[in-house]
Amino acid sequence: MFNFFGSDDEEDKTEESEQNSAEVEDDILQEEEDERSLFGRLKDGLKKSRRGFVDKLGSIFTGRSAIDEELYEELEETLIRADVGVQTTMDLISELKDYQKEEEIEEPEELYEVFQDRIREILQGGDDILVPWDGLEVLMVVGVNGSGKTTTIAKLANRYKNKGNEVLLAAGDTFRAGAIEQIETWGRRLGIDVISQQEGADAAAVAYDAVQAARSRETDLLIVDTAGRLHTQKNLMQELEKVRRVIGREAGEENVEVLLVLDATTGQNALHQAEKFDEAVDVDGIALTKLDGTASGGIVVAVRNELGLPIRFIGVGEQAADLQNFDPDSFVEALFTEED
Ligand SMILES: Nc1nc2c(ncn2[C@@H]2O[C@H](COP(=O)(O)OP(=O)(O)OP(=O)(O)O)[C@@H](O)[C@H]2O)c(=O)[nH]1
């Protein structure tokens, strides 16, 4: 389980949980104060992609004196291998060729700059997450098992609480044994209340209770956990639709945001998951976790370009500060800047 919040063992002594809480707060304060260290973490987290894919790109553009067909072929192969996706790769190459012709670009290095600018452009949009909001905002968090949902919820709950918001959690995963207890443990550690029912209860009923509780407590942010499910499990997907309907009806559609958590290491499969979840519950944004675990960071480009969904957060490690607001400029800089 997620290191930063300490061990997952419910039997941990209170003293230890208090200490963990204090560490969480320290880390968040540090996070707010030190933008440079955030960038350092981002850079560290993208190390595998830089070595695996960006170094290769660099050698394609800088290792030759002229732009030729071979350059484009190598570029195509490298992008596809890096999970940029076939469609996005084809679009990128054809745009690059057109631009090169129009602007009469001859230097491969100049073309590399154009390429990076285009990636930056594709990644724009998505930084309008959650704040500022008026009244209650409900964040419903969905995704397949093991994508990093619980970790993302804990990191976000902690972050917004430390920014002075009233945060409430809903244990909407009534399906997996131990899931309710897991979210309640996070709640205790972070000093955040959790609305729950017993295992096997109707998840929509939990969501209903949670929205009522959030209203009466003047909560700013309610984060609703949902059962991790495979996008292919039809009845569970229908349950998710019901939870979404109930939240929308009770909290007001305009106050609900659906965040889909995707594991970057699952590559193109993540795109398929996103399509299915979007069909079921209208996803508003993506949290792309475990980017530190892949050498194929191109998945970020594919997610943004092929799904048209904004990337709100990226996970580049297990610590709280490793869940970062997605900023295209910093991302491109961190990805393409050579090691010091
Ligand atoms: N390296 C790395 N690990 C991460 C990141 N985000 C989450 N993890 C790890 O991924 C594992 C799964 O995360 P969980 O949050 O338990 O996943 P989940 O989707 O809630 O899974 P279920 O509880 O089975 O539904 C944990 O070991 C996390 O610590 C990340 O950005 N980088």
UniProtKB/TrEMBL annotation:
This is Signal recognition particle receptor FtsY. Involved in targeting and insertion of nascent membrane proteins into the cytoplasmic membrane. Acts as a receptor for the complex formed by the signal recognition particle (SRP) and the ribosome-nascent chain (RNC). Residues 7-33 have a biased composition (Acidic residues). Pfam families: SRP54, SRP54_N. CDD domains: FtsY. It is a peripheral membrane protein. It comes from the Bacteria. Its main location: membrane. The keyword tRNA processing does not apply. It is an enzyme of class 3 (hydrolase). GO terms for cellular component: cytoplasm; plasma membrane. SMART domains: AAA (SM00382), SRP54 (SM00962), SRP54_N (SM00963).
